[in-house]
Specification:
The chain is mostly beta strands and 849 residues long. The protein folds into two domains: 88 residues, Immunoglobulin-like; 735 residues, Beta Barrel (Maltoporin, Chain A), CATH 2.40.170.20. Helix content is 6%, strand content 50%. It has a 22-stranded antiparallel beta barrel. It is globular. It is a multi-pass membrane protein.
Length: 849
């Protein structure tokens, strides 16, 4: 970043002599002499740290003989100073190049910080979050920290049990773009078919990136397709990897759920173990480094089938899947000279999952008593390999800065079955199968140029670039016994999840080229104008041109207003275009064979369902930021998002349908559904974030109130071909309810973080608003609002070791209970709101050297 925003005078005054157990006090100021609130002050090589209060001051009792303090705040260069007890005035040295740092998402200006962005941006310091909460993976961390973000663990949802779908501002998982270090992250190969969130969507699997490798997460809560391309309708999540050197961090975490509903006398279940280590090596004097992270997480099953419910059981096994996750991630930079460097980052993630499918009871005609005299509970397994690699060079070309990179990503998902059978083989049936799967790959070549004109009014930043992307998708069949029917009088295929058939197999690819230009003009010191324009062309459906206009105006030193207006688009994923499968669904507890026909299949063509095309959107955001006194800050942002031609998974058509019934009978399936651009949706919402820092006794209390209010309506359902005029049959009330329930109408987070000496305490309340779903008979299921409580206590055992113990969902709150025969997944609730496992107890120890 340019030095004009990164030179911060820092005054440090020691109240005691230099040495171990000294108390250092000081004040952190910005370039204008104003206090920097919430700046992080850490004693180097330890877990000992604090943050500045409302007047920019801090007090830190040191734990090493010759302490050095590392002071950082987003938008300013990190400063390291000696805690030598002398009154010192320090200015941050001007950077020799502006290519040192990853830019804040939402702006290509190296001069732009989050505090003066025209769009709302949340910055989540992962070090702070992971040290004080029980959640371990990225999705769950964000679920309880960012109100506009929602993700639930699914169960009974096939692939979604293994890849948690997530949404931003109540839209689909595939309507949020994910970047890593500012580069597009590839999506998962999975299409979500069941569960309460993300039905018919393909999203990005955030959990392939270990939290231990992340420095911070930036969430741009604004449409940004004109800046970053497809998918950025709801916003952008940018994951910034660690770049620290000469610092070893490691942690071990263990937790269990309180299984109060189990009837087998087992007190706890769902044990969750995580261990990780991160270390960075500095190379030379020009900022070169290699930072590496190893992470392992093992999560065991929870069992919630025996939860008391109004009308018995639908399944004997119901709960979280068992998952083991191992990751290796790297981030690096190699300086070529004072003005150029090469960068490379990426990682490998290997995941194995083990999820419950629906029970086949002893008298089920899909059971073979000779193999399972008491019936059986099929297990759906997954073998997922995710890999990514990015390499590029950044250099100065005169007054311009050039960034050229290549980005490759791959996600391979393979299903398996165990504890199952193929009923048509009788007692000779195997009890485990390989069921096939799918793979999605992408390669992106990009070039970008930026330049800052300091003499044009108060500064003009111009950026332009181009991008070429190729994507590949393939679906591969399982072994023959996983899908074949050997006896037409019996059910064929592996029970729990029938394998993909050779007729399902497909290999597909497409190309995309894009070009963009954007500019940010500081008309005055108080007034910023910004605009962006982007053109994209896809080989499979055509072109898209999108724009964005933004402004920000500082009314006073304490009040800033901002607004944006943009258009956007999302290209249908290759998986949505090409996915084809015949699977077993359970409706009111009865098995039904369902055909999900690919978009260009003979069935869809016969019905006149057109080829998928891009979704388009119009977004607006208006808000303000305010510093109410020296210790209180407030941001309020209202938004409007209109999505046209949204790709959805239609309702299911039965074999008795007057139009499609005969075709389904010929295919030997009971029901069929399709992907189609079938809906227009409209979202109105409000984001509010209130922060306060206060001195309480000898400690510091940081309080945060953050809330998202969101209302999504389906304006129109579009039908076509032979199904024209049948809106309620094509995309009916039940499917619409699942789309509307992608996020609660409101989600409110109140967090209180207190730190005093070696002790720390965090108390958090999260209120999830009510959710309404429909059962198979279109009767309402109203999930009442719920409040969860998290409590964590921490203690610094030594300057380098910190212990934390606590509970997530301290009072064991679960969603409203229903008859399992009515729910989507066969349990006493659907995976809504905060999840259904109850109280989680945990302990973690963290080391920093």
């Amino acid at each position: 970043m340019k030095s004009s925003l990164l030179i911060a005078p820092i005054c440090l005054v020691s109240s005691m002599a230099w040495g171990q157990n000294a108390t250092l006090t000081g004040q952190v100021l910005d370039p204008a002499g104003r206090p920097v609130i919430g700046a992080t002050v850490v004693e180097k090589g330890t877990n000992n740290g604090t943050a500045t209060g409302g007047d920019g001051r801090f007090s830190l009792r040191t734990r090493t003989a010759q302490p050095r303090l590392v002071i950082s705040s987003l938008g300013y260069a990190t400063q390291e100073v000696a805690g030598d007890g002398s009154a010192t005035s320090i200015s941050l040295a001007e950077s020799s190049t502006s290519l040192e740092d990853v830019q804040v998402v939402g702006s290509r200006s190296a001069n732009r910080s989050v505090t003066d962005s025209p769009s709302p941006v949340d910055i989540i310091d992962i070090r702070e979050v992971t040290a004080k909460t029980g959640q371990l993976d990225v999705n769950q961390l964000l679920q309880f920290v960012a109100p506009s973000f929602n993700s639930n663990r699914q169960t009974g949802s096939d692939g979604a049990d293994h890849v948690d779908p997530a949404s931003l501002r109540g839209l689909g998982p595939d309507q949020t773009l994910v970047l890593v270090n500012g580069k597009r992250q590839h999506q998962s190969a999975l299409v979500n078919l069941f569960g309460s969130r993300g039905r018919g969507n393909t999203g990005t699997d955030l959990n392939v990136i270990p939290a231990a490798s992340i420095e911070r997460i930036e969430i741009l809560r604004d449409g940004a397709a004109a800046q970053y391309g497809s998918d950025a309708i709801a916003g952008v999540i940018n994951i910034v990897l660690k770049s620290s050197v000469k610092q070893l961090t490691a942690s071990a975490n263990y937790g269990v759920y309180d299984a109060k509903y189990r009837r087998d006398n087992q007190r706890f279940d769902g044990a969750n173990f995580n261990a990780n280590v991160n270390y960075g090596i500095g190379l030379g004097e020009k900022g070169s480094f290699i930072n590496a992270t190893l992470d392992y997480n093992k999560r065991e099953h929870t069992q919630r089938a025996n939860v008391p419910s109004p009308n018995g059981l639908a399944r004997r096994e119901y709960g979280d899947p068992e998952v083991s996750n191992a990751s290796l991630y790297l981030n690096s930079k190699f300086a070529l000279n004072e003005k150029s460097h090469v960068y490379a980052f990426g990682g490998l993630n290997k995941r194995k999952g083990d999820a419950y499918a629906w029970t086949r009871f002893a008298d089920d005609d899909r059971n073979v008593p000779a193999l399972y005299p008491n019936g059986f509970d099929p297990i759906i397994t997954s073998d997922i390999v995710d890999a990514s690699a990015v390499a590029g060079v950044r250099t100065a070309l005169g007054e311009w800065e050039l960034d050229i990179s290549n980005n490759f990503g791959s996600n391979n998902f393979e299903y398996g079955l165990r504890n199952t059978l193929n009923a048509s083989l009788g007692a000779a049936s195997p009890t485990s199968f390989k069921a096939g799967g799918f793979q999605l790959q992408q390669n992106v070549v990009s070039v970008g140029l930026t330049r800052n004109y300091k003499t044009v009014l108060q500064g003009l930043n111009v950026a332009a670039g181009a991008e070429g992307r190729r994507e590949w998708y393939k679906l591969f069949a399982g072994e023959e016994a996983s899908y074949r029917n050997y006896d037409p009088n019996l059910s064929g295929g592996s029970q729990g999840f029938p394998g993909y058939q050779p007729s399902d197999e497909i290999k597909s690819n497409r190309d995309n080229i894009g070009a963009y230009v954007d500019a940010e003009l500081s008309v005055t010191q108080r007034w910023l104008l910004a605009a962006a324009l982007r053109f994209e062309n896809y080989s499979d459906f055509g072109s898209s041109l999108n724009y964005k206009a933004s402004t920000r105006y500082n009314l006073t030193d304490f009040l800033t207003v901002r607004g944006t207006f943009s258009t956007g688009f999302r290209a249908p994923s290759l998986a949505q275009i090409n996915f084809n499968s015949t699977f077993t669904n359970f409706i009111n507890g009865k098995p039904v064979e369902v055909l999900l026909a690919r978009n260009n299949s003979a069935v869809t063509q016969k019905l006149g369902i057109p080829a998928l095309k891009q979704e388009t959107s119009t977004s607006a955001n208006v808000g303000f930021t305010s510093r109410l006194g020296s210790a209180l800050s407030l941001t309020v942002d209202g938004y409007y998002i209109k999505v046209r031609d949204r790709v959805v998974l239609t309702s299911q058509f039965g074999s008795d349908d007057p139009v499609i019934g005969a075709d389904l009978v010929a295919l030997n399936v009971d029901q069929a559904q399709f992907f189609a651009n079938a809906a227009d949706t409209r979202s109105l919402g409000l984001d509010v974030v209130l922060n306060h820092v206060a001195t309480v006794g000898t400690g510091r209390l940081t309080s945060t109130l953050a809330a998202n209010f969101n209302n999504l309506k389906i304006d129109r359902v579009k039908t076509s071909g032979r199904l024209a005029g049948r809106e309620d049959d094509f995309f009916g009330p039940r499917e619409q309810a699942f789309v509307k329930a992608s996020a609660p109408p409101s989600k409110i987070n109140a967090t209180f973080d207190y730190q005093v000496s070696k002790w720390g305490a965090l108390l958090r309340f999260v209120r999830f608003d009510k959710i309404t779903l429909l059962d198979f008979d279109n009767e309402e299921m109203n999930y009442a609002s719920r409040i969860t409580t998290d409590l964590t206590l921490s203690y610094a055992l030594t300057p380098h070791l910190q212990l934390a113990v606590g509970s997530s969902n301290l009072f064991g709150v679960v969603p409203t209970l229903f008859d399992p025969q009515r729910t989507e997944t066969g349990g006493a609730w659907d995976p809504v709101q905060m999840g259904a496992n109850g109280r989680f107890l945990f302990a973690k120890i963290q080391a920093r050297f």
